[in-house]
Amino acid sequence: MSILAVMEQRGGVWNRMSFETLAAARQLARELDTTASAAVLGQSIGHLAAELASKHLEKVYAVEHALLEDYTPDAYSIALRQLVELAKPSIVLFPHTYQVRDFLPKLAASLGRVAVSDAISHRVDQGKLVLTRQLFQGRIRVDARFAGDAPHFASLQAGAYAPDQPDPEGTPPDAADAAHPAAAVEKFAPRISPGEIRTRPLELFRESQRSVNLGAAEIIVSVGRGIQEAGNIPLIEKLAEALGAELGASRPICDAGWLPNERQVGSSGQTVAPKMYMAIGISGAIQHLVGMKASRTVVAINKDPNAPIFEVADYGIVGDLFQVVPALVEALQKSK
Amino acid sequence: MKIVVAIKQVPTRDSQLSIASSGKWIEEADLSYEINELDAYALEAGLQLKEAHGGEVLALCAGPARVAQTILEALAKGADRAIHIEEQAATALDPLATARLLAAALRSEAPDLVLTGPQSDDLGYGQTGAILAELLGLPHATIVMHVEKLDGGIRVKRELEDGWFQHVEMPLPALLTIQSGISKLRYVTLMGVKKAKTKEVRRVTAADLGVAPLAPSVTMERFCFPQRTKRAQVFEGNPQDAAAQLVEKLRFEARVI
């Protein structure tokens, strides 16, 4: 039995979530009394592999090929299938990034398996790993257990595990020392032919500059699906005005065109950490939470007491926003 | 273009959920259902591609008898015909099992493009599309914002993290998972419903498709509500009182206003 963490990089730069996966792999290895290794895929990634070698791992796999320079689901699946055959890990862990969501289901299915995607925590029960994941946008949880033969695959939700520090300067907290000698780096060149790559990735790009910088706001009042229709948005604007706040929104509100996309908070919008974040009629799906959970004070107003937004809230009101918000505006004006 | 849109029926967003007494799933009695919202965007994308380039849209849905309503709505919105794979909940809990059924149903169809949502609102695995691509031997792209037809293929705009995007080109046939917000969803009209009732719905079972169940590689064993970890101070009851208490806390305890 062993654990393999598959790290993510683009253009020689780590995706920071990889270090959460690395930390989780080491923790699992300790708890399951086995070893942790890590792999990085790409082209010219020697410096990244060398950085991993100091991270208290059994082994580091540098999976290099010209066809891995730009990500494609075909090349990644082919390379990782060969790596799994070589390294024979029991459990392969990934950060639950957009890229992993793109190729991991394909990779696992090609081996007749289902990955446990977006896991939020784990426990070890009689020597076996049990992973917890969310259903119904975080409203329900389930314990999942691997069945059948290894390898088993899982991806970990952003923020679910505290990361190792990727900082190459100074002395990393887990530098190699006498007790933890640097791991051996094993170079692995997968067999991939250009004919197997069916998609052609083009340049990455960003759209025009945003005119609203929610990142600079001290207070943000955000609105979600609970607002029911565009005509009700002014209710929230009134509250934002009473608080001197910027207006934010969850994805469905921007998808519907009720507020512009530049006001969207979450994994596909802006990431914010204001002094106060007030979420109104937002249930708190993970895609939203990752964009705001670092806020200093979080206030949630929702009619569903089980809404996951209350898990990250400091204060909350359970109730109908159409009654609560006007009452809140009035209370704010009174207390001035 | 022959376009297949794989859709799923899920409990409505505002359902009051409870855990089944077995602890192995939610309590299904009294739930109402609707199309998985992301699949509605995939359907919309399929209908728009058909309107632009001609061809047909085939709706594909696996589930018990109740999904007939969701299929009818897809037909009413403009899908030309449908396949209903009649199956019970046991296999529905595993995205590989579902994808094997969907793939088997498509073997005789040879679509140019298969579309679906990136994730379901209920299980939320976010895997069925990419697994289906693997089983059908198709190239794929996930979380697609825009589809453009080229000679002999397509160019799609993929959403990445932190406001980044990427164009990807691929030949047809291919599979795409469509992001929400790609366009406005059309409504079901009375005329659409009337027409839908005359459209072909092929009903098949796993046995008809020759799909034998596999042993699952993941088992789900205990469903529960999350435990509150952070100590949120929650006010309930009269909205005026709750609002006053909250303002007091924000001013004197959190000191954020």
SSE layout and pairings?
The complex is a heterodimer of chains A (336) and B (257).
Chain A: E1 2-7, E2 9-10, E3 13-14, H1 17-31, E4 35-42, H2 46-53, E5 59-64, H3 73-87, E6 91-95, H4 98-110, E7 116-125, E8 128-135, E9 140-146, E10 152-156, E11 184-188, E12 200-206, E13 219-223, H5 233-243, E14 246-249, H6 251-255, E15 276-280, H7 286-289, E16 297-302, E17 315-318, H8 321-334
Parallel strand pairs in A: 1-4, 1-6, 4-5, 5-11, 6-10, 7-10, 13-14, 13-15, 15-16, 16-17
Antiparallel strand pairs in A: 2-3, 7-8, 8-9
Helix pairs in contact in A: 3-4, 5-8
Chain B: E1 2-7, E2 9-11, E3 33-35, H1 37-53, E4 56-63, H2 68-77, E5 81-86, H3 89-92, H4 95-106, E6 113-116, H5 128-136, E7 140-150, E8 153-159, E9 164-171, E10 174-178, H6 190-196, E11 201-205, H7 206-209, E12 218-224, E13 233-235, H8 239-252
Parallel strand pairs in B: 1-4, 1-6, 4-5, 5-11, 6-10, 7-10
Antiparallel strand pairs in B: 2-3, 7-8, 8-9
Characterise the protein shown here:
The complex is a heterodimer of chains A (336) and B (257). With 336 residues, chain A is α/β, with parallel strands linked by helices. Chain A has two domains: 2-196, Rossmann fold (3-Layer(aba) Sandwich), CATH 3.40.50.620; 214-334, 3-Layer(aba) Sandwich (Rossmann fold), CATH 3.40.50. Helices cover 25% and strands 28% of the residues of chain A. Chain A contains eight helices and 17 strands. Chain A has a nine-stranded mixed beta sheet, with helices on both faces. In chain A, helix 7 links the parallel strand 15 (276-280) and strand 16 (297-302). Residues 167-171 of chain A have low confidence and may be disordered. Chain B has 257 residues and is of the alpha/beta class. Chain B folds into two domains: 2-209, Rossmann fold, CATH 3.40.50; 226-257, no CATH class. Helices cover 30% and strands 30% of the residues of chain B. In chain B, the strands form two sheets. A nine-stranded mixed beta sheet of chain B has the order 9-8-7-10-6-1-4-5-11, sandwiched between helices. In chain B, helix 2 (68-77) crosses helix 6 and helix 4 (95-106) crosses helix 5 (128-136). Classes of the chains: A alpha/beta (336), B alpha/beta (257). The interface between A and B is large, with 91 and 81 residues. Strand 9 of chain A pairs antiparallel with strand 12 of chain B, so a sheet runs across the interface.
